[in-house]
Amino acid sequence: xxxxxxxxxxxxxxxxxxxxPDDDEHPGVLLYIDAIGLRPRIEEMxxxxxxxxxxxxxxxxxxxxxxxxxxxxKADLTVAENREKFFAGGVMDRVRRLTPDxxxxxxxxxxxxxxxxxxxxxxxxxxxxxxRLATRTAGLRPDVVAAVGGFHGGGLVTDGPGSPxxxxxxxxxxxxYGHADGDRSMSPEAVAALGRALEEAGLEHTNEVYEGAAHxxxxxxxxxxxxxxxxxxxxxxxxxxxxxx
Length: 245
Fold this sequence. Notes:
Layout: E1 2-9, E2 12-19, E3 27-32, H1 40-51, E4 55-59, H2 68-71, H3 80-97, H4 100-117, E5 119-127, H5 129-140, E6 145-151, E7 174-180, H6 188-201, E8 205-210, H7 227-244
């Protein structure tokens, strides 16, 4: 039962994919997209999570840059060369433009919209740069976010005061992170620092590196897709939500 809805923001309408197993009341899950954008693969993942018994909302976090269809890749990204060309075409520019002063107010809107269709507590899961957004959302809305998943996330720990991992101190959620192996955007030192932040916050957590899985391993429409790591991620995420939601 999936549909595209529009969410009013101060910067104009934002598309979001909303999916649910049926018309009954269910806990909510906010799904943050990767840098490639809102597209059929994200909808497939949202539908699978919804089939576990959740209402899932996946917003187009790049709404300031255009409609989802206009931002989506036109070439087959399972071909590594096409994926490289797509990322060289300005994708990372829009990722860098999505700074916390924009993404944090958006996060509040996404949560509020989800709660119009679902009940609390909610879970949040994010992929690639979406893992940063998921982590920050847990700190922004500790009153309702009970679970956070972050998979092949990059830049979760930086040297700056605005590093996403600092949001963990304000969270009250259980966390599951599944890092890509050898990810240049999430070094072993960064993974360790993330683990320390979780320990210091006293939160239930799993902080693992998926051996042999490349950055982007859950995205079946791209070259780095790894079926084994993807299924491992779904198993971990489902268990997290069953324990907490």
